[in-house]
Amino acid sequence: MSATFTTALSTPGLTTNNSLRKKRTRLFFSQMYHYLSLTYNFLCALVILPRKKLVTATKNIPKNNDMQYYKGKTLILDLDETLVHSVRLGSENSMKEVSPSIIKKNIEVQCDKQNLLYEVYKRPHVDFFLKTISQWYKVVIYTASMAEYADPVIDWIDQDNVISRRFFRQSCVLKNGNFLKDLTLAEEDLCKVCLVDNSPIAFDLYKENGIALPTWISNPNDESLLDLLPFLDALRFAADVRSILRLQHKLK
Ligand SMILES: [Mg+2]
């Protein structure tokens, strides 16, 4: 009797407990599903989709041949005391000692039916400098030296064929005994051209396009060309190089 009574009394309680347990289980799985759904969406937003977009964008990057945007500007380089230094063998200067770490070459020059022998020294880091800037600019050499001398020197330093044009003394403008450089011969649009020269008088016609570099003669530890690279790397993105280069004149 008491057992029947107990069972009769406890049955509704058991039913209620089972029902509650089922509700809690359903609630648990519902919340778990919601949590997993949120986690998946979060991961998609942060990682998976951007990665897919990156892959798609990477596929759309033009090939090297099409990246003319980076080569839209022209960098004109002076030759003597900017990239090399030369002495004529037999002259007084040729007697001076030069560090054995400096790369040099004897170059024979035919001038006025005479054969002259020059010892030409490369400024430290010239090869790396030319290779690097040729990825950013159209590279031109503009020198006040005679073509008979400068041509074979340029042939020597341009081992990777990165120099696209050459201008010599006959292309300079003679003013008060100085050879000035007409940058428009290389690039008519002055927004897109600059001249690196150890002699500031060389860019007297276009002062806002000039970048002065310390004169180099024989210092084996010179790093001026390396120091210039970060600046040239940034300058290639300027809409008008003069807007940046004129600042250096104001700061002086
Ligand atoms: Mg010079």
Automatic annotation (TrEMBL):
<dbReference type="InterPro" id="IPR023214">
    <property type="entry name" value="HAD_sf"/>
</dbReference>
<protein>
    <recommendedName>
        <fullName>FCP1 homology domain-containing protein</fullName>
    </recommendedName>
</protein>
<keyword id="KW-0812">Transmembrane</keyword>
<dbReference type="InterPro" id="IPR011948">
    <property type="entry name" value="Dullard_phosphatase"/>
</dbReference>
<dbReference type="Pfam" id="PF03031">
    <property type="entry name" value="NIF"/>
</dbReference>
<keyword id="KW-0472">Membrane</keyword>
<feature type="transmembrane region" description="Helical">
    <location>
        <begin position="32"/>
        <end position="49"/>
    </location>
</feature>
<feature type="domain" description="FCP1 homology">
    <location>
        <begin position="68"/>
        <end position="235"/>
    </location>
</feature>
<dbReference type="InterPro" id="IPR004274">
    <property type="entry name" value="FCP1_dom"/>
</dbReference>
<dbReference type="InterPro" id="IPR050365">
    <property type="entry name" value="TIM50"/>
</dbReference>
<keyword id="KW-1133">Transmembrane helix</keyword>
<dbReference type="GO" id="GO:0016791">
    <property type="term" value="F:phosphatase activity"/>
</dbReference>
<dbReference type="InterPro" id="IPR036412">
    <property type="entry name" value="HAD-like_sf"/>
</dbReference>
